[in-house]
Amino acid sequence: MKKRNVPSRFRSILMAGLAGGLWLGCTDAGSDAVTGPDQQPAFNATGRQPDVERAIAAQERHQAALMRMPGVVGTAVGLGADGRATIRIFLTSGDVLGVPAELDGVRVARQVTGLILARSNPTTRARPAPVGFSVGHPAITAGTIGARVIDAAGGVYILSNNHVLANSNNASIGDPALQPGPFDGGTIANDQVGTLAAFQAINFSGGQNTMDAAIAQTTTANVGHATPSDDGYGAPSASIWGDANGDGVFDNKAALLGLAVTKYGRTTKLTQGTVTGINASLSVCYEVFIFFCVRSANFQDQLIIEPGAFSGGGDSGSLIVSSSALQPVGLLFAGSSTQTIANRIDLVLNRFGVRIDDGSTPPPTPSADVAITGVSAPASITQGNTVDVVVTIRNVGTANATSSFDVTLADVTDGVTIGTQNVNGLAAGATTTRTFAWNTTGRSTGQHTLRASHTFA
Fold this sequence. Notes:
By secondary structure, the chain is mainly β. The chain has helices at residues 45-67, 162-165, 188-191, 345-352, and strands at residues 6-10, 72-79, 85-91, 102-103, 106-112, 117-118, 134-135, 143-144, 147-151, 156-160, 176-178, 192-199, 208-209, 214-217, 260-265, 269-289, 292-306, 319-322, 328-335, 340-344, 354-356, 370-376, 386-395, 405-411, 416-423, 431-439, 448-454. The strands form five sheets. A six-stranded antiparallel beta barrel has the order 15-16-17-20-19-18. The protein has a six-stranded antiparallel beta sheet with strand order 11-12-14-10-9-21. A four-stranded antiparallel beta sheet has the order 1-27-24-25, with no helix packed on it. The longest helix has 23 residues, at 45-67. It starts with 5 loop residues before the first strand and ends with a strand.
């Protein structure tokens, strides 16, 4: 069983900052009909490989300079109408100046996409919930259940985005996952379908990201392995696309160009598209104030899918699969009016040590798993006063914790134990709290770290 510790910090002098903003979600009306391009460019992976590799080399050589140009939001390698590799440059508007016609002898294609937004917005409650149904952290609107995945021990999880299940880094392990998502009426009291188990943190400070992904622990009774039987594509394959040697990684990334793909998502449901770009480097907007992006993150090695109608707001987290064999290709997380952006599914699955559950795996044995999910202390206190510190404990497992265990709160900064209290068992999914009286007489001034731990085995 896992033991989790959560720190809480306080300062002797409270300094508060106020940040305000208006979140504008991306919503598309979208038809339920299957949509796709009228034509797909011909592509021979073997014959075009040197051409594509030359374009990737030129793209990567000039990527940094291109992204510094005002109005450029991304680049990718794609195919022109003649089937030759091109460098695609994505622009916020048609009046962006200075975009070259070619780079190192490779033709450049301009495309106006507008801002590329993280897909998040919002339908019914279902148990087990099908793949493609609404899900979300309590603090967001709604996204999509991408797939049911399993780890080596047989643990069952929901796969979706960080910004769907982990509130763009602002969640704690053990937080509830609601189905349907809050925008669609989901509540903590009635609609919890899982608990946040892990997420890949998004770097919002200028570093590069390869994925916006998270998993939430669940059960086969709560989440199904297939899309809806009436209008879905069925169950995704347990084998990812293009992995003939079984090492869990795409054998040939260039062969993705021109691949016909499909997805089922919370908003636009079943749609068809084509992979038109690989190795994409993009700036993705996560918060908009009026018409300006106020929080963004850089991503590299992403996939571009078209047409624009392939996805809409609320489809974030959808699993993208090949149209023929339904083999997983990407995890949808962002898009614009002209295109959809996806993480490579091989990188995502390897990050969490999971694989797609196609329904053939027996359910795991239920187990209890206790976590410290919160430590709440006043932001500012006067030395010598006694204050209450609340520790939150949750059973994030699938079975009742029947044995009692201790919870200890310590002042790590001064190296002293504040107190120990007992918890006499905890039902699966249940949360409890313990309040500790912290006497700060003799404690040092300045910032302190408080750490809670438990003895559940």
